[in-house]
Design a protein that fits this description.
- The protein is mainly alpha-helical and about 750 residues long.
- It contains 29 helices and 9 strands.
- A 5-stranded mixed sheet has the order 6-5-7-9-8, sandwiched between helices. A two-stranded parallel ribbon has the order 1-2. A two-stranded antiparallel sheet has the order 3-4.
- It is globular.
Length: about 750
């Protein structure tokens, strides 16, 4: 132990004398992957970008993270990340890239933090490998290139980890408090997801500190109390504020932050059960998942401005599609089917699992010979920390009822840490010919190469056979050569080891670049040759190669404009509704998806927030379809100028430019104009915010008079929608609908503009 401590001190001293030049290219790689071309995404995730636009306008909107400038409803997440994004937009101006920038910098910061964390204990080469593995984990740059929360969340948790490690090294209780308080800050970024690392923090502190059990319990209890206090601080302030003095808490059913935290953003993620109607009844998991989160609702047909061609109609007449999770589908949104090998299934493995076999071999090597009762070395203690982070999070994603691919960034730090620490440890065992342990290195290389071949195999049509065969052949050859050269110590063997690591990182590096090469998706970020679709997973077998995700149905965020117009969706296998599936707000009919009640899309299935292929939207326009900048934003993020001009001209002092059912229609107008637009049902259109009596009062006060409806009145909004239609004057489409947009697709169905004035 004394010898190891002296080595650590010597290394720390040497590190202060010079900069690690090997780290520079790793940071440059991370910067390129996270920053390059983020300026091409004008809207980013439009739901969150609209909130930043609103938060820039007043402290009231800023504090509550209001979705709209009028302070009607909040977004569905806590405000901390959006506070940071708003500050960035204030400094650099309001742009898509300025709201993405904090997450991109957080992605780079995570690479640096992991280097620091691993290097101190496992050595400088372990730190380098760990940092490089983190930078090249495909889902890391895919998420960091958007204004979604997860990249900032991981960075914050790594800061907390650094504080915890420092607390153990210095034996100062203040750092323990700081570490747990930082987790409380992370809670105010994405709620219960921040608590996924708590097992690692508790286990490590108990094992690593040399104090009495009485002090351990007292310190951890105090730190946990502080964490909880920080966690609920904003929620308590909001929930204790009178409802009429603040926005409605978006995506909650009771206008409560705590309910949002422990329900919608908490337990429901594990169970997959969500309430979309304001009641407590539970729907089939696949149906729930389609309305369960903001990342899902904002579906995109970013190039939907292109006209419907004749070959579309030909393909549409013969296609029927199974619902995600049914038949041979790879689970909802390519998150696989729950089970112990879920992380090795298509759609998830290519986001995070490239190095998992090597990590498993590394764990075996790092813990070889460890006795349960100790004593433990510093390396073993920190290995235990990363293991206690990895296992619970991996178990969650293996059994969870609902999540998105980009949530997997939570696994990136422990995987990268073990890849770095394990590479050095296994190499040392190999070089020392340490019995059976010397076989762990070639074994890890061989099995990892085999998994990578498996991961790439569904993408043969996209990437070709050569890289797949190359990785497989080189992996096998290098593993075998290393196995037969175990008794030799020379430079050639060293080069073989380096070559093996290069081979294992080559395809993750390519995958990490796919959001740059093929374009990314800001609502459902995922890496891979179909990264712009936002669905991840292998290409579909549909006739049109651009139709990926749901086997031919244009997925959320898809940039293809060539989807069929009459595709039908079959219910998932095992449906409890007699083979029929009922969409939220809709009805089933002989196994075919029907639109929500009141929709004018006759016979067409409409995804919640997704586009019916013959739909019209006020934000449709073909004028910028070939623009070099993407307005993907989760919708046809183009504002109908004729509609905007009509609403502006005829506004007689109303607070809201217009009202609509959900955030999809409202967001682009908020972004473009900065004017209040009311999303009556909140994010998904299902929040029980508005009643008929409340709406009447608002109209009488002159707060709103125009309503854009597209048949998406779900849950508690159905009565409101019905009342609007019965008591309004329909505005002829010729007055507000431009000729170029009348035939365009849109995410919320065929729309109608209404006007209501009450005395």
């Amino acid at each position: 132990m004394k010898h190891m401590n002296s080595e650590v001190k010597e290394e720390r001293t040497s590190n202060k004398k010079r900069i690690d030049l090997f780290l520079v290219p790793i940071v440059l790689i991370a910067a390129f992957l996270n920053l390059f071309k983020i300026w091409t995404d004008e809207y980013a995730n439009a739901y969150y970008t609209a909130a930043v636009k609103s938060m820039l306008q007043s402290f009231h909107n800023f504090f509550y993270a209001s979705f709209d400038p009028g302070g009607y409803v909040t977004i569905d997440k806590p405000p901390v990340v959006f506070w940071i994004q708003t500050i960035s937009a204030k400094i650099f101006g309001f742009h898509g890239w300025s709201v993405i920038l904090p997450q991109a910098l957080a992605g780079i910061g995570s690479v640096l933090l992991l280097y620091v964390l691993v290097k101190r204990t496992f050595g400088v080469w372990a730190g380098r490998f760990a940092a490089l593995a983190m930078a090249l984990t495909p889902i890391v740059p895919a998420v960091s290139r958007t204004n979604n929360i997860d990249s900032m969340l991981v960075f914050t948790l790594l800061v907390a980890t650094w504080m915890l490690f420092r607390a153990v090294r210095t034996a100062k209780f203040g750092w323990v408090l700081a570490a747990f308080a930082m987790i409380g800050v992370a809670f105010n970024m994405k709620m219960l997801q921040a608590y996924m690392v708590l097992p690692a923090f508790y286990v490590f502190y108990v094992v690593a500190t040399k104090i009495t059990w009485k002090k351990k319990i007292a310190f951890l209890t105090t730190a946990t109390a502080l964490m909880l206090a920080v966690s609920v601080s904003w929620a308590v302030v909001v929930d204790s504020t009178s409802a009429d003095k603040r926005p409605y808490m978006g995506s909650s059913q009771t206008n409560s932050v705590l309910e949002l935290a422990f329900g919608y953003n908490g337990i429901n993620r594990l169970t997959g059960n969500t309430s979309v109607t304001g009641s407590s009844h539970k729907q089939p998991a696949q149906a729930q998942q389609q309305t369960a989160s903001s990342e899902t609702k904002q579906t995109s047909n970013s190039n939907a401005e292109s006209s419907q061609s004749s070959n579309q109609s030909k393909s549409s007449s013969s296609k029927k599609m199974q619902a995600p999770g049914g038949g041979n589908q790879n689970g909802m949104f390519n998150t696989g089917n729950p089970g112990p090998f879920r992380l090795f299934q298509k759609g998830l493995s290519d986001q995070i699992s490239w190095l998992l076999p090597f990590v498993i071999f590394s764990i075996v090597g790092l813990f070889a010979g460890v006795k349960f009762k100790g004593p433990y070395t510093t390396k073993q203690k920190e290995s235990l920390f990363w293991l206690a982070w990895l296992l619970p999070v991996a178990v969650f994603f293996s059994i969870a009822g609902f999540f998105h691919q980009y949530y997997l960034i939570m696994l990136a730090p422990p995987i990268a840490a073990f890849a770095g620490a394990g590479a050095v440890a296994l190499w040392s065992m190999y070089k020392q010919r340490n019995g059976w342990k010397s076989w762990l290195l070639p074994g890890g290389i061989l099995t990892t190469a085999a998994l990578q071949v498996y991961i790439m195999s569904p993408y043969v049509s996209s990437i070709g056979v050569a890289p797949i065969a190359g990785v497989g052949a080189l992996g096998v050859i290098l593993a075998l050569v290393l196995a037969v050269r175990k008794e030799r110590k020379n430079a050639v063997t060293n080069y073989l080891g380096v070559a093996a690591m290069v081979v294992l990182l080559a395809m993750p590096a390519y995958w990490a670049m796919t959001p740059i090469i093929y374009g990314g998706n800001s609502m459902l970020p995922a890496a891979g040759p179909d990264s712009s679709s936002g669905m991840g997973g292998p290409p579909s077998t549909a006739t049109n190669s651009n139709q990926s995700g749901f086997n031919g149905m244009q997925p959320p965020g898809s940039s293809s404009g060539n989807s069929s117009s009459n595709n039908q969706m079959q219910p998932p296998s095992g449906s409890s509704n007699g083979g029929q599936m009922q969409m939220p707000g809709g009805s089933s009919n002989n196994g075919q998806m029907q639109p929500p009640s009141g929709s004018s899309n006759s016979g067409e299935m409409q995804m919640p927030g997704g586009s019916s292929n013959n739909s019209q939207m006020p934000n449709s326009s073909s004028s910028k379809s070939s623009s070099s900048k993407r307005k993907s934003g989760g919708m046809n993020a183009e504002v109908n100028k004729k509609l905007l001009n009509y609403l502006t001209k005829n506004n007689t002092g109303e607070k809201y430019l217009f009202a609509t059912t959900d955030s999809t229609s409202a967001a682009p107008y908020i972004i473009e104009t900065g004017k209040p637009v009311m999303a009556m049902g909140g994010f998904s259109g299902s929040d029980p915010i508005l009643t008929v009596s409340k709406l009447k009062a608002m109209i009488k006060k002159g707060e709103v008079k125009y309503f854009y409806l597209s048949g998406m009145g779900k849950g508690g909004q159905s009565d409101v929608i019905t009342w609007i239609k019965e008591n309004s004057k329909e505005i002829p489409s010729s007055k507000w609908q431009s000729a170029s947009s009348s035939s365009q697709q849109g995410p919320s169905g065929n729309g109608t503009l209404y006007e209501i004035t009450l005395k």
